[in-house]
Amino acid sequence: MKKQKGKGKEKEKKAESELYRNDWFFADSGDFVTLTEISAAGKYGTFPNERPIEEYINKGVVVINKPAGPTSHEVAAFVRDILEVHVAGHSGSLDPGVTGVQPVMVGKATRAVAALRLSGKEYICLMKLQRAVPEKMIRSTAAEFAGDVYQMPPVRSAVKRALRLRRIYYIDILEIQDTYVLMRVGCEAGTYIRKLCHDIGLALGVGAQMQELVRSKAGPFTDSKPVTLQELKDAYVIWKENGDESLLRELILPMESSFSQLPRFVVRDSAVDALCSGAFLARPGIIGYSSNLKKGDLAAVFSQKGEIISLSVALMTPEEIAESENGFVAKPKAVLMEKGIYPTVWKNKSARENCSISAAQE
Q1: Which phi and psi (to 5°) does residue 107 adopt?
Q2: What is the spatial distance between Cα 173 and Cα 321, in angstroms, rounded to a whole number?
Q3: Cβ–Cβ contacts within 10 Å for residue 8, how many?
Q4: Is residue 189 located within the same domain as residue 208?
Q5: Whether the Cβ atoms of residue 355 and residue 284 lie closer than 8 Å to each other
Q6: pLDDT tens string 205-246
Q7: Cβ distance 139 to 146 under 8 Å?
Q8: C-alpha–C-alpha distance, residues 273 and 17, integer Å
Q9: Domain check: are 46 and 57 in the same one?
Q10: Could you tell me if 157 and 231 lie in one domain?
Q11: DSSP code at position 64
Q12: Domain range holding 153?
């Protein structure tokens, strides 16, 4: 009986984790449907870029250019110590020898780690073949690996060794020189590029190994403007010693930038505080939504000023939202905004859970 109960909990935990797995990064973001005019001129809340610097840091993300050597956990610890915050978390492990994009969530932004950790990734990989192979064969064989692939995690890994399915979105061969192949790989979170190289080598009949690996994208974050640990340290010292926070604001992004790959809802000011208390989002409380939303998807719920309120599970399709005037549109999964920033306008539990009484008053 206990064993069955344990299996049930394990299955529930896996389903919970998979909810955060998203690849909107590789998909069409769709259009945003506005039901009523969005106004950001209200007196409540703050635009993310205009938060006071202490709050800005504690609700921030730093896209670190991870150097070779330290682990991802160590990089997050370095950021935590540099910014003198209590907590910082990374969005997906990189081996010590791997470099590139390593988003680090700071302070209260660590609540968003789960959504970013399981978002799609992109890598630049240098693969070495055991012997030369015609270029045409290399390109055609690599192309066959685009799609769903089965992988067994290596013996030394942080996850349970079990055969699992991962999706390769694209493999672009950038350059071939002798036995060296440079390629760009877009893939689902949890894909082992070292294993992919090994399997391509087997398919070619010559064997292959990963020589170097750089992560170029993680969810919505790219390597267009990565931050070194030294740059972050310098910016923090400049602020502390001279009061100049401009450079620090350039290097740290608002945590809201972590959710640009997700479908979204924008809600009325009158619905915000109820949502911060864990209320379901009701149809009268929303003023806009992403057209590519699907029932069961994880969606980001924003205020009219662009503040992240929660991560919620969609309960309606876009068509159902358009045709409905009432009903629950989404249920909360993780509340990210504190209570008290927006006024409490609901008077009882029913109004709080519906969010419709206050919305109808506007």
Answers
A1: 60, -125
A2: 43
A3: 10
A4: yes
A5: yes
A6: 999 999 999 999 998 899 988 999 999 999 999 999 999 999
A7: no
A8: 27
A9: no
A10: no
A11: E
A12: 120-215
